[in-house]
Every structure is written in structure tokens, then in C-alpha cells.
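=== Given protein ===
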Amino acid sequence: MINTISSPATLQHNKELAVIFGHMADCYRYLGANERFRAIAYDTASRTLSNMHEPVDAYGHDIKKLDELKGVGESIAEKIIEYIDTGYIQTFEKLKKKVPFELLELMEVEGIGPATVRLLHDKFHLKNKEEVIKAIEEGKLVPLKGFGEKKIAQLQQVLKVNKSDKHRMPLSIARRIGNELLEQVKQITGVHIASLAGSLRRQKETVGDIDIVITAATKDWKKIINRFIKLPLVNRTLASGTTKASVILKENNVQADIRVVHDDEYATAMFYFTGSKEHNIQLRTIAKKKGWKINEYGVFDLKTNKKILTRTEEDIYKLFDLPYIPPENRTGKDELTK
């Protein structure tokens, strides 16, 4: 029997709505100065829900009581009720169609704001990171005003474009740097769990970047990211958002990326950010055939969008009737078909 996670009187709806309202704030920021106040309102509502200690469900359909929460006016209160009742916010779904939603996370990159993302979309009709990577590789952005060498280099690093062997380091050096950084991350207030992921966890002979997955309460995410980018090992920041950050370390100019997730997303986040990319694609294909989807946030039933309970990576493979595949064997070749 498959266990799914529902959301009774827990903080589940709080964290889901906090994420949605954060995304809505990004959408309104992208839409320009005329939507500035909406962006601020949804940002505030997102923070309020993240910091609440009681389930927002406890307010029921009482718009007046919801209206008393900081940053939650009548309009947002109605959307909270709509989501609790239906698992859906119609305005958010419409917003995602008005903007290049998959590109909005680029606004977290240092020096890349809404105007730059609009330029990428309007001038080149780019809709996602893969299309931006292709445009960079084909040299399409070079002649564009506002896209100097520095900005393109920044995008290349964050998107991990053209990572050649000369930028990789031996596993022994990566392990030492990674463990040193990991110990500092674990000392940050609010961090529940922090683990190395990526090619370092897969024990590749050479490693390009240091990847770390962190779990924490939503209310602490931004504080953790702000603390991370100021750690003694960090030289400069490439990108800093509400759920992730990319930095260049002082030693060897190594890039380090962190991703902060909820505790119940730890297993799938570790699976997703460990890779390999080819291994992940294969499991996503198997999931689709079963009527599911798998991403860093969990395994979900496509029909109901309910999350299927997976507490560990072993649970993930068991769910798919597969033996557990150790990270070092996740090559994306034939390990899932044996």
C-alpha cells in the first residue's frame, strides 16, 4: 500500500502557501514597477506564513481573522481559503502563463534582475534555463546590450555551462574542501541536516563543484542563505535567493552550491542533487509510466498531486520496485534495468 501525505491540522499548508506566495511575488516583480506593491504584499504574506507556529487551517474560512495576519489582506485571505479548499490558486496558475516562469529563478543571480530576464525572454523568446544555456553556447548573448563578459560569465557559472576538465579537481581535494565547508554549514543556526551531494557524493575521480543539501524550517531559509554567503571560506557570491545560493570559494576558485528544503523533502532532494543527470532522467521516465512524477520535492501522483511518502532514498527505490543503487553506481547507463 502506498502512503500519501495529506494536510490536516499541520503546518503543511503554511509552508506550501509560503512557497506559492514567494513565487507570486517573483511573477509580479517580473511584470514591472506597476506591480511593485503586489510583489511586496506577497513577499510579506510568504514570510508571515513561514513564521507562523499554528496551522493556517485553524482560521477556517474566517477572512476577518486571516486579514489580521501581517501582510494578509482580504484578497490574499481569499486565496489562502481557495488553496486549503482546492489545493489550487487560480490567480497563480494564470500568472505562470503570463511570465516565463522557469526563467524567474535567474533573478537570484547577482547582477541579473527582472529587466534582464524580460530581455532574454522578449528578444530571444527563451523560456527556461536549458534554452539560456544553448543561447550562451551559441554566442547569441554576446552582442546584446547589457550582456557584457562579466554578466555572461556569471550566468555561465551559475548554470554550469562549459564545465571543462581543467575546471575540475581531484576527488581527494574536493572531499577535503567539501567536508570543511560542510562543517561550517552545520554550525549555522537553524540548519537541521546538511549533506554533501553531486559528483562528490558519487565519488567521481574529478569533481567540478561542491553541492550541499540542507533541511530547515521555512522561516530560517533566508537567514541560513545569508549566513552561508558570508562564511569565512567564501570569496564571492554568484547567486542568492530564498531557497539556494551559489558562491565561489577562496580556495582554488571552487564553486559551491547549496539548496535548502523541508525535512520531508530530504530524501528526494538528496536523490535529485546527487545525480547523475542521466540516472535521474531514467527514474523520471519510469515514474511517468506509473502515473507519478519525481523531483527534488518528492514523488507525486500525477492525478491527485498528492505526495507519496518517502523518508529515505532506500524508500524511493523500493517504491519503484528497484534495488537501492549506491550514489557511486548512479551512472545513467544500465543500473536501473538490471
Notes: The two ends are 25 Å apart (CA to CA). Residues 171 and 205 are 5 Å apart (CA to CA).
